[in-house]
Amino acid sequence: MDCSREIEGKQAHDPLFDKIMSKSSRCVFVPGPVIVGAGPSGLAVAACLRSKGFPSMILERSSCIASLWQLKTYDRLRLHLPKQFCELPLMGFPSEFPTYPTKQQFIHYLETYARKFEIRPRFNETVSHAEYDKVIGFWRVKTVGKKLEETEYVCRCLVAATGENAEAVVPKIDGMGEFGGDIRHTSHYKSGKEFSGKKVLVVGCGNSGMEVCLDLCNYRAKPSLVVRDTVHVLPREMLGKSTFGLSMCLLKWLAMRLVDRFLLLVSRLMLGDTARLGLERPELGPLELKDLSGKTPVLDVGTLAKIKSGDVKVCPGIKKLKRHTVEFLDGKMENFDAIILATGYKSNVPSWLKEEDMFSEKDGFPKRPFPNGWKGECGLYAVGFTKRGILGASMDAKRIAEDLERCMKEKAAPYDHHQRSVLLLKSSSSSPSP
User: Fold this and answer.
1) Of 59, 78, 94, 415, which is the most exposed, with the fewest CB atoms less than 10 Å away?
2) 123: number of CA atoms within 13 Å, CB side?
3) What's the chain's Rg over C-alpha atoms?
4) Shortest CA distance to 183 belongs to which of 327, 343, 334, 67?
5) How many percent of the chain have pLDDT more than 90?
6) pLDDT grade, residue 25 (50/70/90)?
7) Which pLDDT does position 294 carry in this prediction?
């Protein structure tokens, strides 16, 4: 991809080009794709591009790679899936790592990955606006730096790699200003140490909410768990294998609904009837629900035993907060010292990417479902929005690199022909008539 040659051609033959580009105080031409986000998704696509000889530039709003993992996750976090399902393209995990690597081990893996593929993101650059300029035929990506300095990057291709977990989801609960105690999202929770001996209400019964409850128990706090919806809780391992790995294997031979029935049967034998604990299951099976809505089943790492023993109390939804008091939907009221919001994250793409065709304004995800949501128009790509974790991001990263390689091979000859045609037209228009 030779964007510099194409830009030079536009400067030479398009009188509007220089006028349009001069609007920015600082403008940087990028000879390869611009990737927004230096998380696992951004690193994966940068490495795949580099393996095929394409340079790229990553813009990252934080001061480090994988900022979600490094700055916004709790200390006891481990990968929920076995490491072989969480590898980035072209480099596996060290053999000495355990089946479920710790947070620190995963960060080390990502840092090693970045060094191996010589990935050097531009840190502390927040993308405020990205839009395709039809006049010049390039993407214009505007950023704001740490000292509020503004820069505009101009590129042929743009890759949105900010992913599904860009911004914390903080629900509005009636009376939050009156509660008086600590209310924080899990992105600001590190460990249960500071809550020892305190009554803590955890809102959200996904993997994070369940693990935070377990962590609080380990530090002798008194957690309660708000369960507002149905949820599938599965053992992390079945029949000596990871539940996820076993599911993937069975799906090669059996229909999804049959695999779901098998998972629920084994779960019932291993965990008992979770509905009796206040954790009612959805009507759809865990795999079918994940496929249709992206809702991930909870893989139990010990929290269910704490619920059974009474160390974790299950509560209904919240109606209102008062001074250190929570009123639940069933009318009951209880005092708490703190509230932890395990309410997840959301995409922030609509806040900075100005286009209408590829991404949904409502949820910030590609409109086309997996596996077709990775490519848009005019050189726009997406990675990390599959609702299938790192495995899905890796698949998209490979597709993007392969697609760019194919496009560049197809455009190589036509590009030279176009340049020659422009020069020919220019010279013929300036020649005297016969």
Assistant:
1) 94
2) 9
3) 25
4) 343
5) 85
6) low
7) 85
Q: Cα–Cα distance between 243 and 285 in angstroms, integer?
A: 14
C-alpha 323/C-alpha 267 separation (Å) is 40
Residue 145 phi/psi, 5-degree rounding, is -85, -175
β 199-203/338-341 pair status: parallel
How does DSSP assign 113-169, residue by residue? HHHHTT---B-S-EEEEEEEETTTTEEEEEEE-TTS-EEEEEES-EEE---TTSEE-
Strands (E), 178-230: 182-185, 199-203, 222-226
- How is residue 296 written in tokens? 């991930």
CA 138 → CA 41, 111, 262, 298, distances in Å? 23, 31, 51, 43
Could you tell me if 396 and 365 are in contact, meaning their C-beta atoms sit under 8 angstroms apart? no
- Which strand (E) or helix (H) includes residue 37? none
DSSP 353: B
Q: Integer distance in angstroms from the first to the last C-alpha of the chain?
A: 40
Are the beta carbons of 228 and 319 closer than 8 angstroms? Answer: no
Q: Within 10 Å of residue 70's Cβ, how many Cβ atoms?
A: 18
Q: Give the C-alpha separation, 99 to 245, whole Å.
A: 12
Residue with tokens 């355990």: 98
288 closest CA partner among 250, 252, 253, 261: 261
HSE-CB for 121 with a 13 A CA cutoff = 31
Helix (H) or strand (E) holding 434: none
Helix, strand counts (H, E) of the chain: 12, 22
CA dihedral 121, 124, 128, 132 (to 10 degrees): -20
Q: How far apart are CA 382 and CA 286, in angstroms?
A: 26
User: What is d(CA 80, CA 247) in angstroms, rounded to the nearest whole number?
Assistant: 14
- Residue 335, phi then psi, degrees to nearest 5: -85, 140
Give the pLDDT confidence of 36-73 residue by residue, as tens digits. Answer: 999 999 999 999 999 999 999 999 999 999 999 999 99
- Alpha helices, DSSP H only, in 272-388? 286-293, 303-309
Q: Which residues pair with 359 in a beta bridge?
A: 366
Q: For residue 371, is the peptide bond before it cis, meaning its omega torsion is within 30 degrees of 0?
A: yes
